[in-house]
Specification:
Helix content is 37%, strand content 21%. The protein is of the alpha/beta class. The protein has two domains: 127 residues, Leucine Dehydrogenase, chain A, domain 1 (Rossmann fold, 3-Layer(aba) Sandwich), CATH 3.40.50.10860; 145 residues, Rossmann fold, CATH 3.40.50. A six-stranded mixed sheet has the order 2-1-3-5-6-4, with helices on both faces. It has a six-stranded parallel sheet with strand order 9-8-7-10-11-12, sandwiched between helices. Strand 5 and strand 6 form a beta hairpin. Helix 1 crosses helix 10, helix 1 runs antiparallel to helix 11 and helix 5 packs across helix 6. The C terminus is likely disordered. It binds NADPH dihydro-nicotinamide-adenine-dinucleotide phosphate. NADPH dihydro-nicotinamide-adenine-dinucleotide phosphate (NDP) binds next to helix 5, helix 6 and helix 10.
Amino acid sequence: MTRRVVLIGHPVAHSFSAQMQQAAFDALGIDARYELLDTPAPALQETIEALRGEEYLGANVTIPHKERAATFVDRKSEDAAATGAVNCITRDGRRLVGHNTDVDAFRISLDTLVGKQKMPRNAVVLGAGGAARAAVHALITMGFQRVVVFNRHLHRAEGLVRHFGRSAAHMELRAMPWHESVIESELSRTRVLVNATSVGLASDESPIPGELLPPDLLVLDMIYNPPETRLLREAKAAGASGVMNGELMLLQQGAAAFQLWTGQPAPMDVMRQKLDEAREAGTGANAGELA
Ligand code: NDP
């Protein structure tokens, strides 16, 4: 029986996961198919329930469903429980297990971006969805001392801060309103800026005006398609000391998910090469649908 793995999200057309994961299954001779499943919010629960069937190895979950997906699984890994967000689902018999492979993937990406410099202790995170939760959990556990979360809808950032109340008790984790002057003032006292919003994914927009960006920032934009968002371009122009898109994070979270579904180490070189090809072709699986 050909096994199925699905990417559950809305939209999913921008995603490179299908090319990357299918190449990995094929390289290891695993009889499995990776499919994009565009899933509007009302269909989420039913779609996740269907994963209990024997034909499924599991699923990935992406925008905007990572937090709600966490409520529909039977059990959660430590990182999924800590973040309250699930980006990967495996099946244990008919029981569904939720994982969060974004956390380690974010950690590896930030480590790579910072390189040999000393790891900074202050960060600004834009966004308060599932991806922001992974970033904040990673920052807390990496020893950051002050993390400020800005979100268009403040209440969601406040919910995130409440969620991490206990694990962030030893440091300062704050939600702040999305006002340019407040963002500018926070950025002037931070080294690390993380974009965990989806702004820049479907259009050449930046979540914040370039004038707010001080020099010497380290900017990690979780978006990988397009490879250079307006935020990254403007950060470079402002004199950023380092910028990184979400491609390494995509590769790392995907490799960890592959291992969870198959029990085998992911063929990283094959996956990396597929990502290179997808980037060079400038396409997601169904390019154009998002444009
Ligand atoms: P969610 O849908 O859960 O959250 C989206 C976030 O973007 C929210 O904070 C939302 O704010 C914000 N947002 C959306 N539109 C706007 C806007 N016009 N102005 C300001 N803020 C806006 O998505 P995820 O958290 O799952 O993903 C966020 C991004 O991170 C996506 O681009 C995703 O592709 C990327 N990502 C990349 C990964 C990788 O491996 N590279 C892994 C995970 C995510 P509000 O709450 O106010 O609506």
